Give the backbone structure.
Amino acid sequence: MHYYKLSVVIIGLAIIASLVFLVNFNETTKNDELVVVTRNAPTTYYEARDGFAGVEYDLVERFAASLGLKTKYIVKDSVDDILAALQKNEGDIAAAGLTHTHQRRNGFLFSSDYQKVQQQVVCRRGGLHPKNAADLIKVKLAVPARSSYAEQLKKIKSKYPSLNWLEDTDNDTEELLAAVWQRKFDCTIADSNIVAINRRYYPELVVRFNLTQPESLAWVLNKNSKQLQKKINHWLAKEKSSGQLSQTLNKYYGFIEVFDYVENRAFQRGISKKLPKYKSMFVKAADHHGLAWTLLAAQSYQESHWKPNAKSPTGVRGMMMLTRTTAKELKIKNRLDPVQSVQGGAKYLSLLIKRIPKDVKQPDRTWYALAAYNIGMGHLYDARKLARHLGKNPSLWSDMSEVFPLLSQKKYYRTLKHGYARGREPVRYVKRIRDYQDILDRMTNH
């Protein structure tokens, strides 16, 4: 009898604890809705061709889905506005690429980190060349108000009292990078991930030096949101252990290579001088085969730099560099005719996408098809087989991009049906095309 009463008490306490948790949690997330304060930027939250996208958006949507919550986004113009909105309880969390800093910890809670970045001093090529923090005294410097950059500068000012800077309340990091490019300021400070994305749009920007050691990006919450903080941290731990987090970061940053100023300038010149002549051709071929025209244009630039008469020593020719055999199969009579070449390339790419095994989902299906366009479907199948042997996931491009280079090593390729391949080439090929497409999407508004 005593055991029965004790069991009832224990069950009752468990129910009360659950109800307390639900009350606390629902106080934070009202009406089964997670309200997220963010900003509109390529590293956080933006509208893409097929809906909204961004690292923060993808992570938030998966977290909310894990709890059965709907999402609502409140977009603010600056870090200052984001933190102010959170203080006013306008949102449940701030997911906006915010750094976990000592000063912010006084007023907010933080989730565990999901990405590491470094603050970098960015100036314009041909302008001033500060080499360290002491040299910042000599430059006209601007950073967003209430940002982690401003917090870091205040620490530096204690050592260099004559250091001054503008804390801009109207412009965010991306806008200040553009302002430096336009020579309105000598330099600004930005997180390394933001710099990596935006230098491709403004090739004259150059990183002068790293201002900090690696720092953590995290979601920000109100001080009374400890239950929600626990839920986020538990979910993030699973994201990390499952590899889902690294896959998301690869989706947005995996194609960005070491910055090539000359190549980026050449591509942007091509966009302004060559692309207008061929854009309608790309649009028509892409629409006919269910592709994005910017993807097709990006692939064509990688293949031929938009040169209709392009030829290679291996015999591939034209805007899409078709082989003689492929052109014959596609019934392309003249590979040097730009219309025929682009139509043929679009058709071939769409056929390859359809041939990719069903376990590969988009957008990885497209990256696999591009790799097959470059290296052949046989080597793609070999790489998938090798991936399984090595314990990698043959359905994820992030894993396959590590496996492809092994096709050039004898201890691996001698066991594969199609043998040796220059395995690094398809990885670089896909990276370049993703990079070019991203720039085209931004600069042409699709």
